[in-house]
Amino acid sequence: CVSSAIRMVRELSCLFKAQFELAFLSPFQKNDVDFRKNDVDFWENDVDFGENDVDFGEKVRHFWEK
Question: Domain residue spans in the chain?
């Protein structure tokens, strides 16, 4: 669970760095479209992170039930 959070933060920092570079290296309109596409990817990652959290909770529950 913690490792997935760290991975998500790393992905986010890479994403923001890429967006920063795109803002200066590409036309604004194209950048806006790319940013929206990346935003969708970010939410998909957020869903994965939530699912990992649920798995972690189930593992803890199984551990206590033993």
Answer: 2-65
- Quote the DSSP letter at residue 27: -
Fill in the DSSP letter of residue 3.
H
Per-residue buried b or exposed e for 30-61, using 16+ beta carbons within 10 Å of the residue's own CB: ebeeeeeeeeeeeeebeeeeeebeeeeeeeee
CB 56 within 8 A of CB 2: no
**pLDDT per position as a tens digit, 20-63:** 766 666 555 555 555 556 555 555 555 555 555 666 667 767 77
Kindly report the pTM of this predicted structure: 0.27
